[in-house]
Structure formats: C-alpha cells, structure tokens
Specification:
By secondary structure, this protein is an alpha/beta fold. The radius of gyration is 18 Å and the shape is globular.
C-alpha cells in the first residue's frame, strides 16, 4: 500500500528526469512513427531479466506473445499482460524489465502480447487480439479461476474492456484484473486532465485527444469497449487499480473505482503520492515501484490462488 510519508529521493529524481527528458522532450503533435522509433530505440536499453527467468517467444491464440516463467511460477497460475502506449506505441519487449517482476511477485506464468496498434489497426483490433489471447490461454488448459489480466495505461483500460466483453459474451472471466494508471475514458472528461496538466511529470494533456481519435476510428468515445468507464461493471472480477496522485489520468482510475463500488464489485483503489504515470516501469531504481509490484503480486495470489493449492484444500 502507498505510505503516508513523502516520496523517496529516488522518486523525486525520477520525476525530474521524466519531466525533462520525456514530457518536455516530446513536443505535442509529434508523429506516431517518430514516437515508435524512439520506443524501439529504448528497447535496447531495457535491462534483461536475471538468470533463472525463462522467456519464450510463442504466439498465444494467434497473437505474438512473450511467455515468461520464473522459478516461483506455479503451474496453475497465469497472467495475461497488456502493455500501454496509447494504443499506438509500445511492445512486450519494452516491458521485459518488469514483466518478470510481475511473474515473480504473483508466482505466476505471464504472457505479454503484442496486440495490433492504431492508427493502422483502430478499435476493435486491440480488444479482438486481447480476447483471442485470453481464449488461447484457456485453450492451452489454463483455468480462468487461477488467471489474472494485468495492464498499464491503455493496456489497463484494455484489461477492463476485455473483462466487460467477456462478461457480456457469457464467457469465462479471469479471477482478477489489475489496471495500472489505466486510461478508462477516451472522451477525456476527467477533471484531473486539467487540474494535473502541470503537475504530471510525464504525460502531456494535449496528446490525449489525438491518441484517442486514432484508436477510436469512428467509434463513440463512450462505447464501453473503448472507454470502460462508461460500461456497467456489474459482475466484473475483483480489481486492483493503482494510480499516481499527480497524473492527468488519476480520475480515470478514481471514477472507475467509484462505478465499480456502486455496482457491488470488489475493487481496491490505491493512489500513490507523487508517483509518475506507470511508475512501476522504474522498478530497477524506484522503491515505490517495487512495493507497488509486491502489492500486485499479493492481490493476484489472493484472488487467483493456484489450482493445485485449491485442490489440496478441497481434499481436506
């Protein structure tokens, strides 16, 4: 859980660095191809997993995926990971320094997929790919009662949209959903988009509308599968939402949690003081990131208990 004391020295340095090199270094209106080239360049600097972590590139339900297994991974527990990047950038490779940490913390196998990106592949391509990967996981023998869906930023919104779609289709739901700094409102109506425009050390508020338009294509921004904030959350799995206090997307998480509570869902909202957008990505240097990941692991282990453990309990 976030602590009452102020942010660590490392966090303040991360805030300064992201503000200077990312927020101020990325002018509004910069093209998608330029952003993608920069992201691809970042991949070279992403630390590789430590010894003992096994990574295999193998499609899941026909969708490109990185399969990650840690020594702690239990046979019956799985995580489907959906990366962020405003639905237009990002990759599983860009997250290889933290996806293994999620697998270790949750004692789970993790599959990070590369869903199709906008604007070449607008809505519902990303959602279709997430659904195909989920079905692929079940086709491989995973029990949904011992699975979780985890996503950050746009991937966090996609995780919630996937849960809505699975619920509406009457298909098996994951045991838990975790959304980190989720983008749940592509109509961009949250007050924090305006109030935190200066305080947010990483995201530029003017970027939200064009990214949303590129992903939506011709879809209504209040379509629940585009913006899960506008869906009926009744019956969704237990959900953990983590967000930084200064984020422009803070209210996307806060309002989602409120809607879920009103619908009788099991939901935990954590607002971490002074944390930048998806601070989990700074886990190699940031103690708050490592604590947040530990909390995610605790949540997943609780709700997606390993199948063998449940079977043993049932035999008693």
């Amino acid at each position: 859980m976030p602590e009452a004391r102020g942010a660590s020295l490392q966090a303040e340095l991360v805030r300064l660095g992201t503000r200077f090199f990312i927020k101020h270094g990325t002018r509004p209106g910069i093209g998608i191809e330029v952003r993608r080239r920069r992201m691809k360049a970042y991949e070279r600097w992403v630390p590789r997993p430590p010894a003992g972590i096994v990574t295999v590139e193998r499609p899941l339900g026909g969708i490109p995926a990185s399969r990650i297994r840690a020594p702690q991974s239990m046979a019956g527990r799985h995580i489907l990971f959906l990366h962020g990047g405003a639905y237009a950038t990002g990759s599983a490779a860009l997250y290889r320094h933290i996806t293994w940490r999620f697998a270790v913390a949750a004692e789970a196998h993790l599959a990070a997929i590369d869903y199709r990106l906008a604007p070449e592949h607008p809505f519902p391509a990303a959602l279709d790919d997430a659904a195909a990967a989920w079905r692929g996981l079940l086709d491989e023998g995973a029990d949904p009662r011992h699975c979780a869906v985890l996503g950050d930023s746009a991937g966090g919104g996609l995780a919630l949209a996937l849960a809505l779609r699975l619920r509406d289709e009457g298909g098996p739901l994951p045991a838990a959903v975790v959304a980190l700094s989720p983008w749940t409102d592509l109509a961009i109506t949250g007050e924090s988009c305006r109030l935190n425009a200066v305080a947010d050390p990483l995201l530029n508020e003017p970027d939200l509308l064009p990214f949303a338009a590129q992903y939506r294509g011709g879809a209504d921004p209040r379509n629940p599968y585009v913006s899960p904030l506008y869906g009926d959350p009744r019956g969704l799995p237990p959900t953990l939402l983590q967000v930084g206090s200064d984020e422009i997307l803070r209210d996307d998480a806060v309002r989602m949690a409120e809607r879920m509570r009103e619908a009788g869902c099991e939901v935990a909202l954590e607002i971490w003081p002074r944390m930048p957008h998806v601070w989990h990505g700074f886990a190699p240097v940031l103690p708050e990131a490592r604590r947040a990941i530990a909390r995610i692991g605790e949540f997943v282990r609780h709700w997606a208990a390993d199948g063998s453990a449940l079977a043993a309990a049932g035999d008693k």
